[in-house]
Amino acid sequence: MRYAAYSSITERGKKWLKRHPRLSSGGGVASVASVFLLIVLSLWFLRGERLARIEAEKTFDLFRQQQPSLSMALGTSQTETEYLADSIVSTQDALEIYGILAESDWRNRKNYTALAQADRENLDHRLGELLFLLARANEKLSSTALADDKRSALVDEALQLNRLAIDRFSTETCPRGLLLQRATLFALQGSTDAAEELRQQAKNQPAESAIDQYSQVYKFLDARNYREAKPLLTALRDRNPTDPVPWLMLGDANAALSFFYESEGCYTTAVTLYPRSYM
Fold first, then answer.
1. What is the sign, positive or negative, of the torsion defined by CA atoms of 65, 70, 71, 73?
2. Which of 153, 125, 111 is nearest to 210 (CA)?
3. Residues 86-103: pLDDT tens digits?
4. pLDDT tens digits for range 193-240
5. Spatial CA neighbour of 123 closest among 94, 157, 149
6. Nearest one of 103, 10, 106 to 59, comparing CA atoms
7. What stretches of the chain show up as alpha helix (H) in DSSP?
8. 3-class SS of residue 114
9. Which residues contact 21 (CB under 8 A, 6 or more apart)?
10. How far apart are CA 155 and CA 191, in angstroms?
11. What global pTM score does this model have?
């Protein structure tokens, strides 16, 4: 064929089919069509997976953008009850994007499964931190509730949030701060034996996570012991210098200690990192 001076495409095609009669039969055509269909379906599946990954990454980016303001509102030590209640609602609304508060199988959602493994682990830790703060906020509200049933309901809610936070980690890596928080909540319910058992269990857990550091910080801040809180907040700031939350909290601690120049610098950095910082 390659020596034919003026052979057309049609002619070449006919000659090729004569030389490959099996492929020109019905079965051959069906086989080629099946392979082609499989390729098309594979490409379509990959396209769908790619689009799902892009959408999941957008959702994760949105959640990361919301987290600083939520953490600052929930974690501020001296917060008005009404503002704290509003912050709880705002955080619950933000968490709806993953369904973690309402669905036991939320991890089957596409906006979670489509993320890369590293991003899923990052999201789990972020969710754990936010759930820890949400549980703490409910615990704080329970201390101001006048009615026994309201106080009990808030503690129950805090326990459920604490359990969701603990479930973000393996048994070996669960932060000590989460177990101590659960022990405190059990004690508020009157379950002193369960609380003591958790405190003993917590001694064998690592205390190196951000949750552990924040747990210690809030203990000092709630007691207005800003001098002890300051070095812990400095360590949290150094752990993640681009996170506005420890900068803001360190500013509050410095202001309480009358270190106003340092306080102003911390506030300025917090606002620079996150212009909507709660002040």
1. positive
2. 125
3. 899 999 999 999 999 988
4. 999 999 999 988 888 888 999 999 998 988 899 999 999 999 999 988
5. 94
6. 106
7. 9-19, 21-24, 26-75, 81-95, 110-113, 117-142, 148-166, 176-189, 192-202, 210-222, 226-239, 244-256, 260-273
8. coil
9. none
10. 12
11. 0.79
